[in-house]
Amino acid sequence: MRLVPGDDLRAALETIARDQAMGAAFVMQGIGSLSVANLRYAGLDQPTRLDGDLEILTLAGSLSADGAHLHMSVSNAEGRVVGGHVSAGCIVRTTAEILMVCLDRVRFSRELDPRTGFPELSIHPQD
């Protein structure tokens, strides 16, 4: 799929997954550019906002109608690279080209894991 300028990357992917009633899918790769990236770094509770011309170097994760778990790395105009958990508010600058694979006979859901405190991936076989 291709996202266009102004799209919120995470919101767009979650909307598509809900609207198409995706049981289970994963993002193989994503490239493109952002004007804003909201990434939550390891061990932090809140995302960090990055503004400017940013290139998406990698985008990967799981996706279903129940939600998404996405990680991304981006580089700035000086070539510095950062990465983390994709939060809402990652705004497409020119384009985002995303390769997704939808899986048959399986459904992903998110269930709270008391050990981590996060809604974690749960995989359910479907006939």
TrEMBL record:
Record's protein name: DNA-binding protein
- The domain of life for this entry's organism is Bacteria
Output the Gene Ontology terms for molecular function: DNA binding
Give start and end of each PPC domain: 1-124
| Keywords of this entry | DNA-binding
Alphabetized Pfam families for the sequence: PCC
Q: Where are the transmembrane segments?
A: none
Q: Which CDD domains match?
A: DUF296 (cd11378)
Name the InterPro entries on file: PPC_dom (IPR005175)
